[in-house]
Amino acid sequence: MEVTALTRMVAGRLEGAAPPKGASATTITGITHNSAWVQPGYAFVAVRGHVRDGHDFVADALARGAALIVGEGWRGSAGLPVPYLRVANARHALGDLAAALHGHPSHKLTTVGVTGTKGKTTTTWLVRHLLRSGGHRVGMLSTLGYKLGDDVLHQFPAHFTTPEAPQVQETLARMVDDRCTHAAIEASSEALAQSRLRATRFDVAIWTNLQPEHLNFHGDMEGYFQAKRMLIDGSRLAVLNTADPWGMRLADHPHVTYGHAENETGDEAMAPDWAATAVHEDGGMLRFTVQSPVGDFPVTVPLIGRYNIANILAALAAASRLGVDVADLQAGLAEFPGVPGRMQVLAESPARVVLDFAHTPDSLQVALESLRQTTRARLIAVLGSAGGPRDPGKRAPLGAVAATLADLAIFTEEDCRDTPIYDILNEMQRGAMEAGRHNTLLIPDRLEAIRCALADAAEGDTVVFCGKAGEITLERADEVLPWDEETIVRREMRLKDEGRGMKDE
Fold it and tell me: Within the chain, what is the greatest distance between any pair of CA atoms?
């Protein structure tokens, strides 16, 4: 697309930017803010960060074939061999130009966005599954990867682990090319704050909840809230959780609600539109009756943990508003395959083996309490805590929760980065000891911790591996190692079974 046509398409959103001189014959084939990703014909957007100015990398971008430089003004722009487009906000321009370059793909899709602290990934996968049950061809973009119209989970290349605006728009365009009519998109607070989802139109936005997390990025809870509310503000309809006071601050937006059938205040005006009653949990099944604007109906869902009821209700509300009928909602829930790494059961016997992403004290407590209810013998938890600046204050609370709720807690690595591993493990151990518990082991190597837990597990036990499920790397000191927890655990389970078989012989 020629620069002149591209800038005209987004002129209103670029806050008055005009096509630069000499740009009429320049054709743009792609866009990025990372000079290392530039290919011939790309536009390079020079984003000013907290540490470096993207203009410092203009020479590298030009050497790689950049055909246009975009920035907020630069004294070196006059001497460039390619046009320079000056904009008021480079990150906004990155999103706007990427969307225009790909033909605004979200405008050709019915889109559902999901944001919140807990439950985003599960809810996003539920939304996609229910829309597919209603006969739609649905793409999905989540922290675990993306899907097009088929059911294959694709991963971004390692350097796109956190997709930026160009990757988001390119992926949505691929969904359109694959004849998708709908898309389910997980929206993190960082993605919203950094304009990665800018120029993406949302028909429905789901708010799960807001709890303290990522405050090193957002500063405080209000900053965290303001980032996440951007999804609601940019949507046509919100699906709000009545149990979350932060979300209910957004009730002036067109919305439907979900939550407990009986609210704590007894205020009928706060009664949710979608609610669950007569809840039963049996093994790996949730059974309850849904109360909703489209009638009351029973559902059975193969998921562990009552906390998942809120995720289910949110997905039901969104899918129903987009035309999926009750029979298809019921059938879809009954066949939901689950989410990789979210209470994912790898084995039921002799010991139950589960993967879960729980990595905060609150999420770990919910996960362990849920598993405790359906564990016949001992509960063994394997977990770590991130190094670097990633919420170091949660290490001791994680240790306390794990040691209190599990019969055996094995503390190990979880992306220790540049933090000495025993600094992390000793802090987790301190939390356990202050809780009056001494049922812990410290095993720095995660593979050895996995082997230890599986070797110790017996009939009726549950072993849960927390914190790494669904991720594809393990960060250790200055190394970034490939890591697939599901594959590793399945391999170690098989090796244990083969060893048992040889001993039995």
Answer: 81
Enter the tokens of residue 386: 């991130």
Contact between residue 305 and residue 284 where contact means Cβ atoms under 8 Å apart = no
Residues 127 and 220 reside in one and the same domain? yes
Residue 388 reports pLDDT greater than 90: no
Question: pTM here?
Answer: 0.84
- Is the distance from CB of 426 to CB of 454 less than 8 angstroms? no
Give the count of beta carbons closer than 10 Å to the beta carbon of residue 386: 20
CATH of the domain at 265: 3.40.1190.10
270 and 359 inside one domain: no
**Residue of 324, 392, 402 whose CA lies nearest to 363:** 402
What residues contact residue 267 under an 8 Å CB cut-off, 6+ apart?
A: none
Pairing of strands 297-301, 84-86: unpaired
Residue 67: per-residue pLDDT = 93
Report yes or no on 339 lying in a domain: no
Per DSSP (E only), the strands in 222-328 are: 235-241, 255-260, 274-282, 285-291, 297-301
Whether 361 and 297 map to the same domain: the answer is: no
Tens digit of each residue's pLDDT (9 = 90 or more) over 333-350: 999 998 988 899 999 889
Query: What pLDDT digit, counting tens, does each position of 53-101 carry?
Result: 999 999 999 999 999 999 999 988 888 999 999 999 999 999 999 999 9
Query: Residue 316: enclosing H or E segment and its boundaries?
Result: helix 308-321
46 and 171 both lie in a single domain: no
3-state secondary structure of 376: coil
Average pLDDT over residues 312-322: 98
Which of 86, 101, 116 is the last residue before a domain boundary?
101
Question: How many angstroms separate the first and last alpha carbons of the chain?
Answer: 69
Q: Which two tokens stand for residue 285?
A: 């099944």
Q: What's the pLDDT tens digit per position in 175-229?
A: 999 999 999 999 988 889 899 999 999 999 999 999 876 666 667 889 989 999 9
Q: Mind spelling out the 3-state secondary structure of 84-140?
A: EEECCCHHHHHHHHHHHHCCCHHHHCEEEEEECCCCHHHHHHHHHHHHHHCCCCEEE
